[in-house]
Amino acid sequence: MEGPNANNKKELTGGVLIWTFFLLLVSQALFGSNQIMGRLIEGAVPPIGLSFWRWILATLVVLPFTIKYIRQFGPIIFQEWRIYVGMAFCLIVLGNTTIYIALNYTTAINAAIVSSVQPAITFALSWLFYREFVTKGQIFGAVIAIFGVFYIISRGDISVLINLEPNPGDIWMIISVIGFSMYAVLLKKLPPSVPAILTLNVIQCLGIFLLIPFYVWETLYSQPMVLNKVTTVAVLWAGIMVAVAAIGLWNYTNLKLGANKASGTIHLRLIMITIMAIMFLGERLEFFHFIAFGIIMLGVFAITRAKPEMDRKRK
Question: What whole-number distance in Å separates Cα of residue 27 and Cα of residue 261?
Fold first, then answer.
């Protein structure tokens, strides 16, 4: 393992390093554009329909690159089908689809700040599912981060929570964050021998099937998906620029830089979403946004900096 890593470090010097970080920032901007688009098309495109057709398009784009692996790794995937179905439900249904629902009710800035609590939720779920050793500092950090979410939901007015009148869009964003966090936790269960691109394609396919009953319900009882310029552009952007290009760039830069360095830029997405929301949506930064984000970042910092007691004793 040391050889390839050492080679990568030698390559990532000067212009190559700058270019890699640039591509990483592009991936974050594309991820952020998904929320801006979701807000722009508020009410014009049914959220479940957008998600459904987005994933069909993304699946078809990736499929030519995975067909060659199906025969070799199909038996392994079939054997572990429960994990793949669970991950598809967490990523496609809970994680992605609920974002489009949320943006019908809340601002893009609010949604971005709520999503920044994901590291804390992932930490909590890792402890719940795997009983990973945690410190008091990590627990304290998780509590602080979650309090930050409550603060953004209440728009700085805690009485909103007491009276049970939070913005429904913020609640949907919390569901989305939980979905993404559960997906991250379940990654540990995946068979390591299956190529990442095949895993993604399988999860995409399964997610489409899981969305079918929700899509049928939305079509019959809420809002049917109508083919027009708005829906076409929305599906093309979400399916190609976000589901394929953004994820592809993210995976590429993670391999080049390493997960730790790449993950350190995730919160730049919040800055990009905020800038785009102000430019294209006319949204405004409120004082409670800064307070909520500060609280969440304090909690996330406490979680990532706190070291298990066992590690300290070894030192």
Answer: 14
Task: State both tokens at 204.
Answer: 């995409």
- Amino acid identity of residue 23, one-letter, is L
pLDDT in tens, 56-68: 999 999 999 999 9
User: Do residues 22 and 253 make contact, with C-beta atoms less than 8 angstroms apart?
Assistant: no
Nearest to 249 by CA among 11, 28, 9: 28
Structure confidence by residue, pLDDT tens digits, 139-183? 777 778 777 777 776 776 766 656 656 678 888 999 998 998 898
Round to whole Å and give the CA distance between 159 and 161: 5
CA distance 18 to 29: 16
Nearest residue to 29 (alpha-carbon basis) of 270, 309, 278: 270
The distance of Cα 90 from the centroid of its chain, to the nearest Å, equals: 10
Taking the CA atoms of 17, 8, 119 and 32 in sequence, report the sign of the dihedral they define: positive
Q: Give CA angle at 76 (70, 78), nearest 5°.
A: 85
List the domain boundaries for the chain: 19-314
